[in-house]
C-alpha cells in the first residue's frame, strides 16, 4: 500500500510538522495566521521551486520541505527541497531512470491551494478550472464539421484551451464580417437617399440613336439650304421670263399698231404675231411651271429647326440622366451584393462559433468521462444535475468545483487535492463536501478557520499541530 508523508521544517512559523497524505480527508483548522495555509505554501514551493529565502523561519539556517513515498511501510522515494540564505536545492532519491523530481511531483499532486468558494464567487471560474485541468484533446474530425483545419498545435494542447483560442479567432472574424456587412448596409442606404424608384424597364433611347438623328437633322438642314438656293434660282428665272413676257406683249402691241400702218407688211407682221403669240404661250406655260415648282418647295423656318434642335437636346439630357441613374443603380447593386456576401460570411462564422461554443465543449466533456453524476455542457453552459451552474448558490458551486477537482485528480492519478478557505461553506454543504472527499480515494488536504469538529481535523497553532 502506498502512503505519502509531507514534512516541513523551519518554513515561516512552522518549526517542524509532519502530515500523512493518506487517502481520505486531512483538515487543518485553527484561528487566522496560525500557519494553516503555510502548509499549502510549503507544498507549493516544493513543486514550483520558488527561491523565496524570506520564508526561512527566524533563527534557522535553512528551511526544508520533504515528500516521502512509503510502500507497505518502506520508504521508496524522497523528494526534498532545501532553502538556505544562499541557495535552494532539490534532491530526489528512488526515482526511476529518466524521471525528474519536478516531473514526479507534478504527476502526483494536483493544483495547490485552490479556493472553491472564491472560484464559485467569480462565476465562471469553476468552468475555467475544469477546462484548464481536464485532460482531453480535440480531434481533427471535431473541427472538420465546421470546415476548420487548424494546425496540429491545436490538437496537441488541452482541448478546451485550444477550443477557446480557436473560438476567439472565429469570433473576431465573425465581428469583422458583421461590421463589414453593417458598413455596406449603411453605404447602400446612403446611396439610395433621394433616389427615384428603380426603373427595371429597358431604356430604348441611346446616345447612338440620338447621334444618328442629329446627323440626319444636319443633313436635312444642309438639304434645306440647297433647296432654298434652288428656289432663289427659280425665282430669278420667273422674273426673267416675266420680263421676256412683258416685252413680248409690248412687241405684239407694236406689231398690231404697225399692222394698221403697214398693211403691206401684214403678212410678215402676222407671222411675227403668230410667232410672238406662240412665244407668249410658251413663256406663259414656262412661267406657270416655274411658279408651280417654286410653290411645291417648302422651306422649313428657323423656328422649326430650333424646335427640333431643342427636342434633340432634351433627348440628350434624358439619355445622360438615364445613364447616370443606371450607373448609380449598378453601384448600389454591387454594394448590395457585397453586403449580402458579408452577411453570408457572418452567418457562416456565427454558425461555426455557436458550434464551437455549444457543441464541441459538450463533446469534449463526454470524451473526458469525469465520474461526476449529471455534469454536462449544454447550451454553452455547464450543467450539474440538470441545473445551470450559474443558477446555483455560491456554496453549491463551491461543492461542484471541489467535485471537479477531485474527479480530475483521480483521473490523473494524483494523490492529493489541496483546498483553502473551506470555512466559508455552510454546514449542509460542508457535510456534502466532506462526504464527497471521504469517498474520493485521494487525500483531500483542506484548511478552515475554527476548532476541530471531526477526527480527521488537526488544530494548528503557532505553526504546530496540537492534536497530531
Describe the structure.
- Strands 2-1-4-5-6 form a five-stranded antiparallel β-sheet, covered by helices on one side.
- It has two domains: 2-134 and 370-465, P-loop containing nucleotide triphosphate hydrolases (Rossmann fold), CATH 3.40.50.300; 207-321.
- The protein has 468 residues and is α+β, with helices and mostly antiparallel strands.
- α4 (125-133) runs parallel beside α11, α8 (207-261) packs antiparallel against α9 and α8 (207-261) runs antiparallel to α10.
- It is rod-shaped and about 190 Å long.
- It contains twelve helices and 13 strands.
- Residues 117-124 have low confidence and may be disordered.
List keywords for this structure.
468 residues, 5-stranded mixed beta sheet, alpha+beta, Rossmann fold, 56% helix, 12 helices, 2 domains
Short overview:
With 468 residues, this protein is α+β, with helices and mostly antiparallel strands.
In what order do the strands lie side by side in the largest sheet?
2-1-4-5-6
Number of domains: 2
Number of strands: 13
Following the backbone from N to C, one meets helices and strands in this order, namely EEEHEEEHHHHHHHHHEEEHEHEEE
Low-confidence stretches: 117-124
Count of DSSP-assigned helices: 12
N-to-C span: 22 Å
Alpha-carbon Rg, integer: 56 Å
- Gross morphology: rod-shaped
**Which percent band covers the strand fraction?**
15-25%
Q: Regarding quaternary structure, how should these chains be classified? A: single chain
CATH superfamily of the largest domain: P-loop containing nucleotide triphosphate hydrolases
CATH class membership of the largest domain: Alpha Beta
Helix proportion range: 55-70%
CATH overall fold name of the largest domain:
Rossmann fold
Amino acid at each position: 500500500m502506498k502512503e505519502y508523508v509531507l514534512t516541513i521544517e523551519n518554513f515561516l512559523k512552522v518549526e517542524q510538522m509532519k502530515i500523512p497524505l493518506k487517502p481520505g480527508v486531512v483538515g487543518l483548522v485553527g484561528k487566522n495566521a496560525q500557519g494553516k495555509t503555510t502548509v499549502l505554501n510549503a507544498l507549493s514551493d516544493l513543486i514550483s521551486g520558488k527561491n523565496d529565502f524570506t520564508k526561512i523561519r527566524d533563527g534557522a539556517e535553512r528551511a526544508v520541505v520533504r515528500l516521502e513515498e512509503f510502500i507497505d511501510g518502506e520508504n521508496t522515494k524522497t523528494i526534498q527541497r532545501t532553502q538556505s540564505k544562499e541557495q535552494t536545492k532539490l534532491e530526489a532519491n528512488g526515482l526511476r531512470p529518466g524521471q525528474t523530481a519536478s516531473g514526479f511531483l507534478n504527476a502526483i499532486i494536483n493544483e495547490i491551494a485552490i479556493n472553491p468558494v472564491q472560484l464559485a464567487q467569480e462565476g465562471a471560474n469553476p468552468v475555467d478550472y475544469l477546462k484548464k485541468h481536464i485532460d482531453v484533446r480535440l480531434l481533427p474530425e471535431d473541427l472538420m464539421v465546421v470546415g476548420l483545419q487548424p494546425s496540429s498545435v491545436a490538437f496537441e494542447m488541452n482541448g478546451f484551451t485550444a477550443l477557446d483560442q480557436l473560438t476567439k479567432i472565429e469570433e473576431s472574424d465573425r465581428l469583422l464580417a458583421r461590421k463589414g456587412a453593417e458598413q455596406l448596409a449603411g453605404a447602400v442606404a446612403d446611396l439610395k437617399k433621394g433616389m427615384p424608384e428603380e426603373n427595371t424597364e429597358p431604356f430604348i433611347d441611346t446616345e447612338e440613336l440620338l447621334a444618328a438623328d442629329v446627323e440626319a437633322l444636319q443633313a436635312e438642314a444642309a438639304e434645306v439650304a440647297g433647296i432654298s438656293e434652288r428656289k432663289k434660282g427659280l425665282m430669278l428665272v420667273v422674273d426673267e421670263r416675266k420680263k421676256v413676257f412683258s416685252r413680248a406683249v409690248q412687241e405684239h402691241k407694236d406689231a398690231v399698231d404697225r399692222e394698221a400702218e403697214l398693211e403691206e407688211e401684214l403678212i410678215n407682221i402676222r407671222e411675227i404675231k403668230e410667232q410672238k403669240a406662240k412665244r407668249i404661250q410658251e413663256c406663259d406655260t414656262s412661267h406657270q411651271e416655274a411658279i408651280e415648282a417654286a410653290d411645291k418647295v417648302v422651306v422649313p423656318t428657323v423656328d422649326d429647326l430650333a424646335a427640333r434642335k431643342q427636342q434633340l437636346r432634351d433627348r440628350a439630357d434624358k439619355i445622360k440622366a438615364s445613364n447616370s441613374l443606371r450607373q448609380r443603380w449598378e453601384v448600389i447593386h454591387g454594394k448590395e451584393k457585397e453586403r449580402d456576401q458579408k452577411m453570408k460570411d457572418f452567418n457562416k462564422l456565427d454558425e461555426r462559433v455557436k458550434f464551437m461554443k455549444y457543441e464541441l465543449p459538450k463533446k469534449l466533456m463526454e470524451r473526458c468521462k469525469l465520474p461526476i453524476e449529471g455534469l454536462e455542457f449544454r447550451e454553452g453552459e455547464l450543467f450539474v444535475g440538470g441545473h445551470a451552474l450559474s443558477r446555483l448558490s455560491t456554496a453549491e458551486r463551491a461543492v461542484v468545483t471541489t467535485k471537479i477537482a477531485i474527479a480530475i485528480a483521480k483521473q490523473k492519478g494524483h494523490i492529493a487535492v489541496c483546498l483553502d478557505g473551506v470555512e466559508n461553506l455552510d454546514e449542509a454543504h460542508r457535510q456534502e463536501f466532506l462526504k464527497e472527499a471521504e469517498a474520493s480515494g485521494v487525500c483531500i488536504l483542506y484548511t478552515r478557520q475554527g476548532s476541530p469538529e471531526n477526527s480527521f481535523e488537526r488544530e494548528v497553532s503557532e505553526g504546530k499541530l496540537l492534536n497530531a
